[in-house]
Design brief:
heteropentamer, A alpha+beta (608), B mainly alpha (342), C alpha/beta (369), D alpha/beta (341), E mainly alpha (300), B: 342 residues, MetI-like fold, 14 helices, 79% helix, C: 369 residues, alpha/beta, 2 domains, 4-stranded antiparallel beta sheet, 12 helices, globular
C-alpha cells in the first residue's frame, strides 16, 4: 500500500524530529493573490493525509498545525550527532541552561505577536506547559519519579520563564524535553484547563492517594485538550492557515511574526499525500519547492533529478532499521543462529533493492547510526565484527547452534524443518522489498524463509509487542540523545523499564518485553554487563563516561545481536531552486527541521 | 381521480414496507459492524504508545497517556457497549473519530461524501448516456462484426475490475503522457467558489476518477441496453406498430422507452453500489472520498469512523434499493396498476 | 346460408377494394439454404367479402397474411409474385415511406388475440395519436385531424360495446383479452383502411368472447364496406365469419370456394380429412376420423409433387412428381390429381402443366363479378 | 374409483403490503369417476377446472372437502402416505413442449419412472429382469402409436407436438395409473392431429381400463372422449350443470351451459344453427360480483331471486341432469347436421 | 410392438458423443470462442504446471533491477531483478486456486440454497431469501476490508473459503428464480406426479436444466474471486505472498512508482494484462455457454 515509506517518515518526525523540508522559491502561478514573495509549495512530512476537519491543535496528530509554519515549539532542536542540547530559536529567542542542567531560563522574542495581534507572553508559555502535562511529555511528566522532569515553572517577567528540573532523578534530556514543547495562545485556549490547574499539579507531583487522584484528574483532561481547537488559527509562527481542502492547505504570511520582514514566501501551499507515489508525482512535475525525507526508487530518482530546478540534498538522519529477533522463540535464542543469519544477509544488496536513495547499508550492528557511531566510538567502530557475507562462517555458526543441514536445507537441532518468517507491516513497501530480498538471500543459502505482511503498522506493532512474530523490522538508533539510541535495543521492548527512577527487568512476554533477550550479556573484552542498566545510565551520565557506556553497549549489541542492523537512513530531501533560493546545503543540521524553520530563520528568498 | 388516490396510497404502502425492511437491514448491519469493530485486534492505542515512547517519553508516562485514551473507549460489558452504540446511532451520533480527535464521525463522513458522490454521479451518468446509445447501436447491428465487437468490448469492460481500469488509465495519463493530475480535488490556490479557475481545477482533478467510473460502468450499460433492446424488438407490439404504419421515429421511441425502463432501476441501484465500489478508484487516484476514508480508518484503527463509513455505504445501497423500486413503481404503468386492484 | 352473411345490400360494398395475389412465393433463409414457406399462391379477395384462410402450423398462413402488407420478417422475403390492391397497386413492390403509409391507411392488420400488440407504457389513446401523427395528422392540418381521429376511435369502440373514452385512457394491462382485441380492430380501422387482415383473431379467447368478436368482425365488415382476410387454424371461425374459404397446406393453397360449398362438399382429401377429424356436437360421434401422419415443417415440405401425398389416402403415382393440376368448377377450385379424375360430372376447367392456378381463379373472379 | 366432495380452494393473490385479495377457484365441487369411466369438465379459462385437475393429481392442496381414492379418504393419511394414491392419478399437461425435459432424451425420460416401478415391484416380490425397463419403454411407446426405435434416443425438440404429447401419455402410463387427467391435452396440437390423441385416450380407456378425466373448453372433444361419461360444467369455481354427456349437450338447462354451447361456431354447409341459441350479456368485470347466482350478472333470464340467492346443484324442475339454476329450461342450442342428399 | 431394440447404454453413449460434437459445432461457429477456450485452458495449465517451469526460488539478478523488457525478460524484471513473466506464470497457481475454491463454494452453496429455497418455498424460502437479500445489500468489498482487520487470510484455500462464503448470494438468487420457474414447468410437475424422488427431480431434472446458469455463474465466480483477491492484495490488506498478481500490482505502484515513471510500468502491466486476458477468455467462453447447454442450439 501506498503509505509506505511516508509512514516511516512520519515516525522519524515524531521520533527524532529529524525532518526535512527544503524550499523553493515560489514563482508559481499565483492565483490566490500572494504576489510579493510567491507561493512556497511543500508537504508536511508529519502529516500524510490532510484533514479538513482537524483542529488547530499541535498535539492532535491530525490537527491542522504545521510545525515551523503555524505551530511553534519553544526552540527547534538541531539533533546534533552527539549533543542533544543544541537548538535554533523558536518562541524563545535565547536561553540560559544551568551547567548542571538543573534549570533553564527562556527569553522570548521581545516583539513577537500572535497573528491576531496579541503579544506572545511568558504566561502563554506557562499555559502551554500546563497543556503539555495533560499530554504527558518527558520534561512535564506527572509521575514524581520520572527522569528529567520539571519541578517548577516560574514566570519571571512578561518575556521570561524559568523551568527547574527535579534533581531527584535528573536527566540530560530535560532541556530537550522543555524545548520541544509547543506553545499555543492562552487567550485562544481559554477554558480548556481548570483555574486551579497548577495547584492540582502540585498535589499530583506528591505521593499518596490524593496525588493519585489528582494525577487522574489531570490525565483525564488529555482528551479534552487533544480535541480542542480555537475556532480560527492563531499562530505565532511565520504563517497562519488561510484555508484547506482535502487536497491542500494554504497558509499566508503572519505579519505579526517577529521575523516577518525576513520571511521569504507570502504563501505556503501544503499538499496532501496519502502515499509516496504521490510525492514522486509532485516532484517529477516540479511542483514541490521542498520535499522532506522521501524514499524513492532509483528510476523515480532519475526522473525527479531530470526535472528542471530539482536538486537532491542529503543529510544525517539519526535512525536505522534492523531485523529484530524474538529471542523467546527457538532457534533465535541462540546467538549463533543470529550471527549465522547476519553472515548470510547481504546488506548492500538489500539496501540496493529496498532503499537505494534513502539509506546506506549498515557498517555493522552497533546499535548506532554509522555517522553518530563514528563520533561516539571513533576507531572502536572498526574493531566490531562487521558480519560480512560469509556462508562458510554462517555454516560454522549454525553448526555451533546445533542446526543440521539436510538436502541443502538447514533444519532445527531436533531435525524439524526451520523456516525463517519475517513479519513486515504491509504499507511499508521499502521494508517489504527488503524483507523479500533477505528471504531470497536466505533461501539461496539453504535457509527456508518467507515474508508475512501485516495489514497495517498499528497492528504490526501490537502483534510484535504481543510476541507473535519470530522476526520483524524494528526502527533503532534514534538519536541524538544516547539513551534514546539504545532504548530501542535495551529498553522496554527488551524487558527494561525505568520505574520510579529504578531500572527493572521483566521476564520475556511480560510488560512489553517481546525481544526476550538475556538480562546480562557476557561481552568479550568487557565482561558480564546488564545492557538495560547501562542504557538507563545514559540518562544521567555525561561526557567521557557516556562515551564509555556507549562503547560497552555497542560491543554488547555487536556480539549479542538482538537485532541485525540493516541500514542507516539517509535524510534525502528534494528542493527546487526555480522559485526560491537559500536552501540548506548537504549535511546541514537544518535538514532535520521542517522547512518552516528555515523560513522563519530568514533563509529562503524569492528567486530574482 | 379515485385511481390516482389509490395509486398514491399503494406507493405509500410500498414505501412504508421498504422503510421497515430497510430499518431491519440497518439494524443488522450496525450490529455486524459493531461486532466486527469490537473484535478488531491491534488497537490504535498501542501504536500511539509506541510513538510516544519513540518521542522519548518515559514508557510509564506513555502508558499513562495512553490509558487516558483508553478511557475514551467505553468500558463495560459488550451488551452495555452495544446499547450505548445503538442509542448513539439513534441520535445520529456515530461517535467521535479517533483519527481526527474531536471531530464527530458524522462531520468527517460528510466532508468525504461529497468527494465520492460527485465523481460517481458524473461518471455513472456519463457511462449511462454513452452506454445506452451504444447499446441501441449494438442491438441494431447485433448480427454484424461491429455489433460483436461492441458486445465483446462491453463484456470485457464490464468484466474487468475497476482497479485494472484505474491503473491502466493512471499509467497512461500520469506516466506515459503526463497530462492529468494524479490526485487531490483541486489546486488550493484557487479559492473555492463559483469561479472558472476553481471549477476548472476541480474538473481537471476529477477527470481520471470520473473517466474510470465511466469506463467501468459503460460495459454494463451497453450490455444491459443491448439485451433490453433486443428483447423489446422481439416484442409483438413493435411489429404491430410497424404494421400499423407508424413512423420509424415513433417506433424508435417505443423501443427506446420500453428498453430503457428496466435500466433506470439498475441505474438507481448502481449509484448506491458505487458508494462502496469507489475504494479502489479513490485509493489509486488519492481522491478523498468515502472509500479512501474507509481504508484510512481501517489503517488507523479508527473504529468509530470505520463503522460509520461502513454504515453509510450500506445505507446508500438500501436507499438506492428503495429509490429503484419506487422509481419503477412511478414510471412503469404496469406496476402502478397493481395498486388499483389491491 | 346464415343470416349474418346475407348483407349483400350493404351500401359500401361495391366501393371496397379488391385484392389479387398472384404467384406469391415467400422463402426463409435457414442453415439448409432458402426454403419456401409459401409457394405459388394465387388468391383473390373479391371486394367487400370476407375470405378465410385455414391452415395448420407450418402451412404458411401467417406468412401469407404478412405478405399482404409486404411485412415478411427476416430471414424471410418475398421471392416472387405480386399483391395487387385496388387503388394502391402492387404491395410487394412498395417500399420505404410509401409502404409505411399504405400500412394502416389502406391495409389494416389485426393481431392474434394472444399477442400483446399494444405498447405497455402508453395509453391506448396515446398510441392512437402516435398512429395519427405517423400518418400525417396534426402537423399539416392542425389538431382538428387528431380530434377527429379520437372521435372516430371512440365511435368504433362504442360500436363494439366498450366505453370508448375509458378505453382510450387505459393501458394495455388494464384491458381484458376481448377488450384488447377490440382495440386491435379499432386501430386497424380507425384510419379508414378498407382491406383488413385478421391473423388468428380469436385464438386464446374464451368461447363466448370468441363468438362476440366474430360477430363484431362480421358486423363491422358490413358496415364499413371492407375487404377482409381472416387467417385461422380453426375451421369453425371461418365457417362462422367468412364468405369464401381457402385451405392451405404445406405452403400451398389446396382448395378454395364459397364457405358453405366447401364445408358442405369438400373435395380435396386434406379438406375432407380435416373436417372428418373435427368431433361435432351432434350426429354420430363415431364418424370422426383421425388424419394420419403429421403436417410438414419448413424443411420437410416436399419440393416436388403434391405436398399432401404423405398423408393422403388417395395417393397415386402421379402425385409423386411434377405439378398438381388446378381443378376449377363453378366458383370452386381444388388442387389435386384425384379431384381431377373424379369430377367428370361437373363442368370443369383443368389447368395442368405450365398453366398456373391463377388464371383459373381469375376466371372464377370474372364469373362472380 | 375416485370421488370428491365439497372441494374448495381459494388463492390469495399477492397485492403488496395491503395483503392482496382472495380469489376463490373452487367452491365446493363434488365429483365421482368410475373405473374405466370418463368425466369431462368444461368451462372457460379461469373457471377452476385446471385447479381441480392439479388437486386430483396431488400437485396442489385443497382447502376443504374430501377426496377419496379407492375408498380411502385422503384426509386420513399423512401427506407422505397419500403419495402412492395420488400417483394413480396422472396428469397429462396441456403443453407438450414444457411437459418434457429438454435436456433429457425420451429414453431417459421414460426409464426414470420405470426403474422406480421396477424397484416397487421388486419389493412386492414381483421382480423383473434388468431388461424389463427397456422393453417396457418400447412397449409403452408402441402402445401410444410411436416407433420406439425412432423416438427413444431423441430429445423432445426433435419430435413434433403430437409425438411429444404421445410420449407424455406414455410416461404417464409407466406407473400404471388408474386415472389420466387430461388438461386441455390437445389444445396446443395441430387440428389434424388432435383426433389421433383423443382416439388414443379413448383407446386406453377401452384397452387398459384407465379412467379419463378430461378438462377442456371444447365440448365436442369431451363428447368424443366419453359419450358414455358425465359432463361437468363449471362457472367461476362452481359446478352449474352435471349429467350424462349427451343429455347436457342436447338439452342443456343452465343458461351458462346454453351460452357456452351457443358460442360454438357452426360449420355452415355442414350444419344448421340451433334454434334457441343463448347470447349472454357481456359482463366484462363480473368477477367482482359475489352475491346470489354467480352467473346472474350475465344471464339473460335472471330474476330478482337470482341476484340475492345462490342456487345449488340439484334436479330441480325434474331435469334428468343436475343443475344450479332457479329457472331450468331445456333449450336446443347446438347446431344440427344438414342431412346430405 | 417395435422391431428395433435400442439398448440403453448405446443410447446414452450416442447422446454423449452428440454432446461433444455439438460443443465442437458451437465453438466453431465463432472463432472468437475458440480463442476464449484456448485462453481459459492456457490459464488452467498455467495454474497447474506454471510453477514447475521455473526453479524455486526464482532466479534474481541484482544487476538488473526493474530492467526494461527484453528478449530474456519480456516484461522486464521486478525490484529484486526477478523476471516478471516468471512471477506472473508462477503466481497464477495461487490466484487460480483461490478462484477455484471460491467458485466451488459459491456455486455449491448458492445452488444448494437457491434450489432448496425455490423447491421448498414457504417459510424456508422467505428466511433464506431475506438472508440472501441481506448478503446482497451489505457491500462486499468494504465488508472484506473490515473483516480483514480481524481475520487473517492465510493461504489460498482459506482466502477462497472466505470469498466463497461472502459470494453465494447472487448465485442463490439466480438459482432460486430459475428453480421457481422450472418448478412450474410441466416436466417437473410430471416428475412429482410420477412419485420420482426429490433427489431425482433435483439432480436429474432441475440441475441439468440449470447447467448453463450454473456454469456461467461458476465462470463469473471465478473472475469475481480473482478480482476480489487481487484487489485485496493490491490494497495491501492481505498478507504478503511473494509472487502474487495483486502483490505485484501493489509493489509496482507503491514501491516501484509505476504511476510516476516508466521503469516499473512493465511490472505493473504484466499482471494487469494477465487479468485482462483471463477476463477476455472467460467472456468469450460464457458467450458460447448458452448454446453449448441448449441441445437445440447445439445442433443447429
Amino acid at each position: 500500500m501506498g503509505r509506505s515509506l511516508t509512514a516511516v517518515v512520519s515516525i522519524l518526525g515524531l521520533a527524532a524530529v529529524t525532518a526535512c523540508t527544503g524550499g523553493g522559491a515560489a514563482g508559481e502561478k499565483s492565483a490566490g493573490g500572494g504576489a510579493g514573495g510567491g507561493v512556497y509549495t511543500t508537504i508536511d512530512g508529519n502529516k500524510p493525509g490532510l484533514d479538513v476537519n482537524g483542529p488547530f491543535n499541535p498535539w492532535n496528530p491530525k490537527g491542522n498545525s504545521f510545525q515551523g509554519f503555524n505551530a511553534m515549539r519553544i526552540a527547534w532542536s538541531k539533533n546534533h550527532l552527539t549533543d542533544p542540547n543544541q537548538f535554533y530559536p523558536g518562541i524563545a529567542a535565547s536561553w540560559d541552561i544551568a551547567p548542571d542542567n538543573s534549570s533553564i531560563t527562556l527569553h522570548l522574542h521581545p516583539d513577537n505577536k500572535w497573528s491576531d495581534g496579541q503579544p506572545v507572553t511568558a504566561e502563554d508559555v506557562k499555559f502551554s506547559i500546563a497543556l503539555a502535562y495533560t499530554q504527558g511529555s518527558t520534561a512535564f511528566a506527572l509521575d514524581p519519579g520520572a527522569a528529567g522532569a520539571a519541578s517548577d515553572v516560574e514566570v519571571v517577567d512578561d518575556k521570561t520563564v524559568k523551568i527547574t528540573q527535579d534533581m531527584k532523578n535528573p536527566s540530560v534530556t530535560f532541556v530537550r524535553g522543555v524545548m520541544d514543547s509547543f506553545v499555543v495562545p492562552e487567550h485562544a485556549w481559554e477554558g480548556v484547563l481548570p483555574a486551579d490547574f497548577w495547584d492540582k499539579l502540585e498535589t499530583a507531583r506528591g505521593e499518596g492517594a490524593e496525588a493519585e487522584a489528582a494525577r487522574g484528574e489531570i490525565t483525564a483532561l488529555s482528551e479534552k485538550v487533544l480535541a480542542f481547537g480555537p475556532p480560527k488559527d492563531v499562530s505565532a509562527g511565520p504563517f497562519v492557515l488561510e484555508r484547506m481542502n482535502p487536497g491542500e492547505a494554504l497558509l499566508v504570511k503572519n505579519k505579526n511574526f517577529y521575523n516577518a520582514a525576513n520571511v521569504g514566501p507570502d504563501q505556503v501551499k501544503l499538499l496532501n499525500y496519502t502515499g509516496n507515489e504521490q510525492i514522486w508525482n509532485y516532484l517529477t512535475a516540479g511542483k514541490l519547492d521542498n520535499a522532506p525525507f522521501t524514499a524513492v526508487p532509483a528510476d523515480v530518482m532519475k526522473r525527479i533529478v531530470a526535472t528542471p530546478g530539482n536538486q537532491v540534498v542529503k543529510g544525517y538522519s539519526p535512525v536505522a532499521v534492523g531485523l529484530a529477533f524474538n529471542q523467546s522463540k527457538k532457534p533465535y535464542d541462540d546467538v549463533h543462529v543470529r550471527r549465522g543469519l547476519a553472515h548470510l544477509i547481504d546488506r548492500a544488496e538489500v539496501v540496493k533493492i529496498a532503499s537505494p536513495e534513502g539509506g546506506t547499508a549498515a557498517v555493522t550492528t552497533s546499535g548506532i547510526h554509522a555517522k553518530a557511531a563514528r563520533e561516539w566510538l571513533g576507531g572502536e567502530l572498526d574493531a566490531l565484527e562487521p558480519y560480512n557475507v560469509d556462508p562458510a562462517k554462517a555454516e560454522e555458526e549454525f553448526k555451533a547452534a546445533g542446526l543440521t543441514k539436510k538436502d541443502g536445507k538447514w533444519a532445527l537441532a531436533d531435525g524439524k524443518p526451520w523456516k525463517v518468517t519475517i513479519h513486515i507491516p504491509a504499507p511499508f513497501s521499502d521494508w517489504v522489498s527488503a524483507a523479500k530480498a533477505i528471504t531470497s538471500q536466505l533461501t539461496t543459502a539453504g535457509v527456508d524463509a518467507e515474508v508475512v505482511t501485516t495489514a497495517d503498522y498499528p497492528l504490526y506493532l501490537s502483534e510484535l509487542a504481543e510476541g507473535k512474530y519470530d522476526l520483524g523490522f524494528w526502527l533503532m538508533a534514534l538519536g541524538p540523545a544516547p539513551y534514546n539510541i539504545y532504548q530501542r535495543l535495551y529498553g522496554g521492548s527488551n524487558g527494561w523499564n525505568i520505574l520510579g527512577g529504578k531500572v527493572e527487568h521483566s521476564a520475556p512476554g511480560k510488560n512489553g518485553n517481546w525481544m526476550g533477550g538475556a538480562e546480562t550479556v557476557d561481552v568479550e573484552g568487557v565482561g558480564e554487563v546488564n545492557p538495560g542498566e547501562l542504557t538507563a545510565k545514559l540518562n544521567s551520565v555525561s561526557g567521557d563516561e557516556q562515551k564509555a557506556v556507549i562503547g560497552q553497549l555497542a560491543k554488547a549489541a555487536n556480539q549479542d545481536l538482538p537485532v541485525i542492523q540493516l541500514w542507516d537512513y539517509v535524510n534525502t530531501q528534494f528542493v527546487n531552486t526555480n522559485r526560491f533560493t537559500g536552501f540548506p546545503a548537504d549535511d546541514s543540521d537544518l535538514l532535520r527541521q521542517p522547512s518552516g524553520v528555515w523560513i522563519q530563520l530568514g533563509m529562503l528568498k524569492k528567486k530574482q | 381521480m379515485a385511481l390516482h388516490r389509490s395509486r398514491a396510497r399503494a406507493v405509500a404502502w410500498r414505501l412504508a414496507g421498504h422503510l421497515a425492511r430497510g430499518f431491519v437491514m440497518i439494524l443488522v448491519v450496525t450490529t455486524i459492524s459493531f461486532l466486527i469493530i469490537r473484535n478488531v485486534p491491534g488497537n490504535p492505542l498501542a501504536a500511539r504508545y509506541e510513538k510516544l515512547v519513540e518521542q522519548g517519553m518515559a514508557p510509564d508516562a506513555a502508558a499513562r497517556a495512553v490509558e487516558v485514551l483508553y478511557g475514551f473507549m467505553p468500558q463495560g460489558s459488550l451488551w452495555d457497549q452495544y446499547v450505548g452504540y445503538m442509542s448513539g446511532l439513534a441520535r445520529f451520533d456515530l461517535g467521535e473519530s479517533l483519527m481526527v480527535p474531536g471531530s464527530p464521525v458524522s462531520d468527517v463522513l460528510l466532508s468525504a461524501t461529497k468527494w465520492t458522490v460527485l465523481p460517481v454521479l458524473a461518471g455513472t451518468l456519463l457511462s449511462f448516456l454513452v452506454g445506452v446509445v451504444m447499446g441501441v447501436y449494438a442491438a441494431i447491428k447485433r448480427s454484424g462484426v461491429l455489433g460483436d465487437m461492441l458486445a465483446i468490448s462491453g463484456s470485457l469492460l464490464h468484466g474487468v475490475p475497476q482497479y485494472v481500469l484505474a491503473l491502466l488509465l493512471g499509467a497512461i495519463f500520469t506516466t506515459l503522457i503526463p497530462i492529468l493530475p494524479a490526485g487531490g480535488t483541486a489546486d488550493i490556490l484557487y479559492e473555492p467558489g463559483f469561479d472558472a479557475a476553481y471549477i476548472g481545477s476541480l474538473i481537471e482533478h476529477a477527470t481520471l476518477p470520473v473517466l474510470t467510473y465511466a469506463l467501468a460502468g459503460y460495459g454494463g450499460w451497453i450490455l444491459a441496453m443491448k439485451s433490453s433492446v433486443v428483447t423489446v424488438l422481439g416484442d409483438d407490439f413493435i411489429l404491430a406498430a410497424e404494421l400499423r404504419g407508424m413512423k420509424r421515429s415513433i417506433i424508435f421511441r417505443y423501443v427506446a422507452r420500453n428498453a430503457i425502463l428496466p435500466l433506470f432501476t439498475i441505474l438507481a441501484l448502481s449509484l448506491g453500489l458505487l458508494f462502496g465500489g469507489s475504494i479502489f478508484i479513490e485509493r489509486i487516484f488519492n481522491y478523498p472520498g468515502l472509500g479512501l476514508m474507509l481504508i484510512d480508518s481501517i489503517n488507523n484503527r479508527d473504529y468509530a469512523l470505520m463503522g460509520g463509513a461502513f454504515l453509510l455505504i450500506t445505507v446508500a445501497i438500501i436507499v438506492a434499493n428503495i429509490v429503484a423500486d419506487l422509481l419503477y413503481t412511478v414510471i412503469d404503468p404496469r406496476v402502478r396498476g397493481e395498486g388499483e386492484t389491491a | 346460408m346464415a343470416a349474418e352473411q346475407s348483407s349483400e345490400q350493404s351500401s359500401d360494398r361495391s366501393s371496397a377494394p379488391g385484392v389479387r395475389i398472384r404467384g406469391l412465393s415467400v422463402v426463409y433463409r435457414t442453415g439448409a439454404g432458402e426454403l419456401p414457406a409459401v409457394s405459388g399462391i394465387d388468391l383473390d379477395l373479391p371486394p367487400g367479402t370476407i375470405t378465410g384462410v385455414v391452415g395448420e402450423s407450418g402451412s404458411g398462413k401467417s406468412t401469407l397474411a404478412l405478405s399482404l402488407l409486404n411485412a415478411v420478417q427476416p430471414p424471410g422475403r418475398i421471392a416472387a409474385g405480386s399483391v395487387e390492391i385496388d387503388g394502391l397497386g402492387d404491395v410487394a413492390a412498395l417500399h420505404g415511406d410509401g409502404l409505411r403509409r399504405a400500412r394502416g391507411r389502406h391495409i389494416g392488420y389485426v393481431f392474434q388475440a394472444a399477442q400483446n400488440s399494444l405498447n405497455p407504457l402508453k395509453t391506448v389513446g396515446g398510441q392512437l395519436l402516435d398512429l395519427g401523427r405517423s400518418h400525417g395528422m396534426g402537423r399539416s392540418h392542425g389538431p382538428d385531424d387528431l380530434r377527429g381521429l379520437v372521435r372516430e376511435a371512440r365511435g368504433l369502440l362504442d360500436r363494439m360495446g366498450l366505453d370508448g373514452a375509458r378505453v382510450l385512457d387505459s393501458y394495455q394491462h388494464e384491458l381484458s383479452g376481448g377488450m384488447r382485441q377490440r382495440v386491435g380492430i379499432m386501430l386497424a380501422l380507425v384510419l379508414n383502411a378498407r382491406v383488413v387482415v385478421l391473423d388468428e383473431p380469436t385464438t386464446a379467447l374464451d368461447m363466448i368472447t370468441q363468438a362476440t368478436i366474430l360477430r363484431i368482425i362480421r358486423e363491422v365488415h358490413e358496415e364499413r364496406g371492407l375487404t377482409t382476410l381472416v387467417i385461422t387454424h380453426d375451421l369453425g371461425v371461418v365457417a362462422e365469419v367468412a364468405d369464401n374459404l381457402a385451405v392451405m397446406y404445406g405452403g400451398r393453397l389446396v382448395e378454395q370456394g364459397p364457405t358453405g360449398e366447401v364445408l358442405g362438399d369438400p373435395r380435396h382429401p386434406y379438406t375432407r380429412g380435416l373436417l372428418a377429424a373435427i368431433p361435432r356436437l351432434a350426429g354420430d360421434i363415431g364418424e370422426a376420423r383421425a388424419l394420419p401422419g403429421r403436417p410438414p415443417t419448413l424443411d420437410s415440405v416436399p419440393a416436388d409433387g403434391c405436398v399432401f401425398r404423405e398423408r393422403c389416402a388417395l395417393r397415386m403415382e402421379v402425385c409423386e412428381t411434377g405439378r398438381v393440376p388446378v381443378v376449377s368448377w363453378g366458383s370452386r377450385t381444388a388442387v389435386c390429381h384425384a379431384v381431377q379424375g373424379a369430377r367428370e360430372d361437373v363442368k370443369q376447367t383443368v389447368t395442368a402443366g405450365t398453366v398456373t392456378a391463377g388464371t383459373a381463379i381469375a376466371d372464377m373472379g370474372e364469373e362472380q363479378a | 374409483m375416485i370421488t370428491g366432495t365439497g372441494i374448495t380452494k381459494t388463492f390469495s393473490r399477492r397485492g403488496g403490503v395491503l395483503g392482496g385479495r382472495e380469489v376463490p377457484a373452487l367452491r365446493g365441487v363434488d365429483f365421482a369417476i368410475e373405473k374405466g369411466g370418463a368425466a369431462s369438465f368444461i368451462g372457460e379459462s379461469g373457471c377452476g377446472k385446471t385447479t381441480l385437475g392439479r388437486i386430483l393429481a396431488g400437485l396442489e392442496s385443497h382447502d376443504s372437502g374430501e377426496i377419496t381414492i379407492d375408498g380411502v379418504p385422503m384426509s386420513s393419511l399423512t401427506p407422505r402416505r397419500r403419495q402412492p394414491y395420488f400417483r394413480r392419478v396422472q396428469l397429462v399437461h396441456q403443453d407438450p413442449y414444457s411437459a418434457l425435459n429438454p435436456t433429457r432424451t425420451i429414453h431417459q425420460t421414460l426409464s426414470a419412472p420405470l426403474s422406480l416401478r421396477a424397484r416397487q415391484m421388486e419389493r412386492a416380490g414381483t421382480g423383473r429382469p434388468r431388461s424389463w425397463i427397456g422393453e417396457r419403454a418400447e412397449e409403452l411407446l408402441s402402445l401410444v402409436g410411436l416407433d420406439p426405435g425412432y423416438v427413444l434416443p431423441r430429445y423432445p425438440h426433435q419430435l413434433s407436438g403430437g409425438m411429444r404429447q404421445r410420449v407424455v401419455i406414455a410416461r404417464a402410463l409407466t406407473v400404471d395409473p388408474e386415472v389420466l387427467v387430461a388438461d386441455e391435452a390437445v389444445s396446443m396440437i395441430d387440428v389434424s392431429l388432435r383426433l389421433g390423441i383423443l382416439a388414443l385416450l379413448k383407446d386406453l380407456r377401452d384397452r387398459l381400463g384407465v379412467s379419463v378425466l378430461f378438462i377442456t373448453h371444447d365440448v365436442a372433444t369431451a363428447r368424443y372422449i366419453g359419450t358414455d361419461g358425465e359432463l361437468y360444467v363449471i362457472y367461476r369455481g362452481q359446478v352449474v350443470e352435471r349429467g350424462p354427456v349427451e343429455t347436457v349437450i342436447s338439452a342443456p338447462v343452465h343458461p351458462y351451459t346454453q351460452a357456452l354451447l351457443s358460442a360454438i361456431p357452426v360449420l355452415h354447409g355442414l350444419e344448421t344453427p340451433g334454434e334457441q341459441r343463448v347470447v349472454p350479456t357481456e359482463a366484462l368485470d363480473a368477477s367482482r360480483h359475489d352475491r346470489g347466482c354467480l352467473f346472474a350478472p350475465r344471464c339473460p333470464f335472471r330474476t330478482a331471486r337470482c341476484e340475492s340467492e345462490r342456487p345449488v346443484l340439484g334436479h330441480d324442475g325434474g331435469t334428468p341432469q343436475e343443475h344450479a339454476c332457479f329457472h331450468p329450461e331445456a333449450r336446443t342450442v347446438v347446431a344440427v347436421p344438414v342431412s346430405h342428399s | 410392438m417395435s422391431v428395433t431394440v435400442v439398448p440403453a447404454a448405446g443410447a446414452s453413449a450416442t447422446v454423449r458423443r452428440n454432446f461433444w460434437r455439438g460443443v465442437w459445432r458451437v465453438m466453431r461457429r465463432k472463432p472468437s470462442r475458440m480463442v476464449g477456450a484456448a485462453i481459459v485452458a492456457g490459464f488452467a495449465l498455467m495454474g497447474i504446471f506454471g510453477p514447475l517451469l521455473y526453479p524455486d526460488p526464482l532466479p534474481r539478478d541484482t544487476q538488473a533491477l526493474y530492467a526494461p523488457p527484453s528478449w530474456r525478460h519480456p516484461f522486464g524484471t521486478d525490484f529484486e531483478g526477478t523476471d516478471v513473466l516468471a512471477l506472473v506464470v508462477t503466481g497464477a497457481r495461487y490466484v487460480l486456486l483461490t478462484a477455484a475454491v471460491t467458485a466451488v463454494i459459491t456455486v455449491v452453496l448458492g445452488t444448494a440454497i437457491g434450489l432448496f429455497s425455490g423447491f421448498k418455498r414457504g417459510r424456508w424460502d422467505s428466511v433464506l431469501m431475506r438472508l440472501t437479500d441481506m448478503k446482497l445489500t451489505i457491500p462486499g468489498l468494504p465488508l472484506l476490508l473490515v473483516l480483514s482487520t480481524i481475520w487473517k487470510f492465510t493461504g489460498a484455500i482459506e482466502m477462497g473459503l472466505v470469498l466463497g462464503l461472502l459470494g453465494w448470494g447472487g448465485v442463490a438468487r439466480a438459482v432460486r428464480s430459475q428453480t421457481l420457474s422450472l418448478r412450474e414447468r410441466g416436466f417437473i410437475e410430471a416428475a412429482r406426479g410420477l412419485g420420482l424422488s426429490t433427489g431425482h427431480i433435483v439432480g436429474r431434472e432441475l440441475l441439468p436444466s440449470m447447467a448453463p446458469y450454473i456454469a456461467m455463474n461458476t465462470l463469473i465466480a471465478v473472475t469475481g474471486a480473482v478480482y476480489a483477491q487481487v484487489g485485496l492484495f493490491f490494497l495491501g490488506v492481505l498478507p504478503f505472498e511473494a509472487n502474487n498478481w495483486g502483490v505485484m500490482l501493489n509493489l509496482a505502484v507503491f514501491g516501484g512508482g509505476a504511476l510516476t515513471t516508466t521503469a516499473a510500468l512493465p511490472y505493473l502491466l504484466a499482471p494487469l494484462l494477465a487479468i485482462l486476458l483471463l477476463t477476455l477468455g472467460i467472456v468469450l467462453v460464457v458467450d458460447a455457454m448458452d448454446e453449448i447447454f441448449n441441445p437445440r442450439l447445439r445442433e443447429e
